[in-house]
Design goal:
Structural class: alpha/beta
CATH superfamily: Thiamin diphosphate (ThDP)-binding fold, Pyr/PP domains
Number of strands: 7
Order of helices and strands: HHHEHHHEHEEEHEHEHHH
Distance between the termini: 55 Å
Oligomer: single chain
Bound molecules: thiamine diphosphate, magnesium ion
Strand order of the largest sheet: 1-2-3-7-6
CATH topology: Rossmann fold
Length: about 350
């Protein structure tokens, strides 16, 4: 894992931030990222072995966005995202066993095994899903921010959605209300350059970070593969929002290494494109390079964290596989009928 000169140059942009972290803090961030990566890889292989039904969307490549966001936000801030939600759930404190249980339809799953890959929630941990409707979580986040303001609670809602969702009307309607009422919401577009198989250039006009401009919502484009850049941008945005200035919009320039979902062979892009990002911009590699060059961490230490992550994932798989299947009676709980009765 040699330090690439391109990566070095990029890190210089946010070098001042390196002093804000202790070596232990940064190693913890590295550990989170490598664990998310190994966990997602395992989920992919379990899916291929037939342990899960339904859809499954992996987050491999995008790890710096959620780890940077968690590090930059405060305890009690609300998180809400799309169906590509396993990493957001894990970083919100939901255990790998609970996520795996959900994926495999076990009673120990975080949604009791009846939600599956796209529907993980834990309100106690301020994690509000897991939503399958593209763009659907944006108005929900806006409503959550309205609630926080109405109740005078010091909470920022961090709302994650994709570049495809950023084309939706629901997003623009939400922007209007959030700006009008100065709601404490941070909209984070995870631009991984594809909406399913359609490249950004073929589905979206203009720049994503400028989409709030007509409403006076400030926007910024951020290197979403660089933990430090994400941390810096989200820290500043949360400070601005907490001061009562209303919403902000960040476009995270990131990349997904795998297909849209498990059934996508990703024939719409070249293998060299993916490999180029992996070798030049991989978020884990970049953080590892900073740890080695600025904090004198040894390559063996990083390898040890990787080994530890793999072991933790293997243990979680063992526990999840041992858990009983979801109880069929659960199909009738937590449901609000059309007449409003539970
Ligand atoms: C309203 C709606 N339209 C279409 C779909 C089908 N669909 C699922 S994911 C997706 C692409 C979304 O891409 P993006 O917002 O970039 O998120 P990413 O998958 O890249 O994270 C589409 C069109 C859907 N789930 N909901
Ligand atoms: Mg996308």
């Amino acid at each position: 894992m040699a330090v690439k000169s391109a990566a070095k140059k990029k890190f210089n942009l946010v070098k001042s931030l390196h002093n804000q972290f202790t070596k232990e803090d940064l190693l913890a961030q590295y550990e989170s990222m490598i664990q998310l990566r190994r966990f997602q890889e395992k989920v992919g292989s379990l899916y291929q072995q037939g342990y899960m039904g339904g859809f499954c969307h992996l987050y491999i490549g995008q790890e710096a966005v959620i780890t940077g966001a968690k590090a930059a936000s405060k305890e009690g801030d609300d998180f809400i995202t799309t169906y590509r939600c396993h990493a957001h759930a894990a970083m919100s404190g939901i255990s790998m066993e609970e996520i795996l249980g959900e994926l495999m339809g076990r009673s120990t799953g975080i949604s009791k095994g009846k939600g599956g890959s796209m529907h993980m929630f834990d309100p106690d941990k301020h994690f509000w899903g897991g939503h399958g409707i593209v763009g659907g979580n944006v108005p929900l986040a806006t409503g959550m921010a309205f609630a926080a303001k109405y109740r005078e609670e010091d909470r920022v809602t961090l709302c994650f959605f994709g570049d495809g969702a950023a084309d939706s009307g629901a997003m623009f309607e939400s922007f209007n209300m959030a700006a009008l009422w100065k709601l404490p919401v941070l909209y984070i577009i995870e631009n991984n350059h594809f909406s399913m198989g359609t490249a950004k250039e073929r589905h979206a006009a203009g720049e994503f970070y400028k989409r709030g401009e007509p409403f006076g919502i400030p926007g910024k484009k951020v290197d979403g593969m660089d933990f430090f850049a994400v941390y810096e941008a989200i820290s500043e945005a949360c400070e601005y929002i907490r001061a009562g200035n209303g919403p902000m919009l960040l476009e995270m320039d990131t990349y997904r290494y795998k297909g849209h979902s498990m059934s996508d062979p990703a024939k719409y892009r070249k293998r060299e494109d993916v490999d180029g990002i992996k070798t030049k911009r991989d978020p884990i590699m970049q953080l590892g390079n900073v740890l080695m060059s600025n904090y004198k961490v040894k390559e063996e230490d990083l390898k040890a964290l990787d080994k530890k992550a793999k072991e933790a994932v293997a243990k979680a798989v063992e526990i999840a596989l041992d858990a009983p299947k979801a109880d069929m009676a659960e199909l009738y709980t937590d449901i609000i009928q059309s007449n409003g009765e539970k």
